Amino acid sequence: MTMIKDIVLVHGAFVDGSGWRGVHEELTWDGFRVHVVQNPMISLEGDAAATRRVLDALDGRAVLVGHSYGGVVISAAGAHPNVARLVYIAAFAPDSGESVDTLLAPLPPILPPVEGFLLLDREQFAGWFAGDVPDRLAAFMADSQVPWGMDALRGPVAEPAWRHRPSWYVLATEDRMIPPPTQRMMAERAGSTVVEVIGSHAVHISQPAAVADLIRQAAAG
After folding, report:
1. CB atoms < 10 A from the CB of 114, how many?
2. Which helix (H) or strand (E) holds 140?
3. With CB atoms 3.0 to 4.6 Å apart as the test, which of 76, 87, 189, 192 could cross-link to 48 if both were Cys?
4. Burial 93-109 (b: 16+ CB within 10 A, else e)
5. What tens digit of pLDDT does each residue of 19-69 get?
6. With contact defined as beta carbons under 8 Å apart, do 110 and 127 qualify?
């Protein structure tokens, strides 16, 4: 197969696209064209639309990559004609009618919603989300959280793109936000090629080389 050169990265809840920096550096060093989506984080529909706008601007096929809630976004937006392959990074891969809200168990320390938006408990952020990230970076991530809309949490996927596109999956073995057995269940029913990486939910930050390696595999087909 021809190597795909465009990579589109979609971040998850509570963070923004800057978390992809290490993966971006790994891939651009190899000559890939990397595009980072900045999700509005208000609703699944809005985040899928933001992803489609990036895909619309491409002149060829792409590998669409999602971390965490970003897996819901790529499942919703991945039917775009420019998407050839999907990669899930410690991510939700919902089936028809499913959302993060229906798949998230046990519940992480999410604070009660304020005006329809959610945050993780700052004091528990590192332990749950970024257990293998340097302490100062994890503290910054906790202090710079992006509020996550309830409509994004509850937004269901109609027809998941993984039914029509080949997929790969990084399973983070130390993840507390999405338990590894849940990750494995979703990856297996999607028919994904699975690679286990010893890492927390923030595996794309703590293990960018391993994550980039699987994206390269997907790009090569």
Report:
1. 9
2. helix 135-143
3. 76
4. bbbeebbbeebbeeebb
5. 999 999 999 999 999 999 999 999 999 999 999 999 999 999 999 999 999
6. no
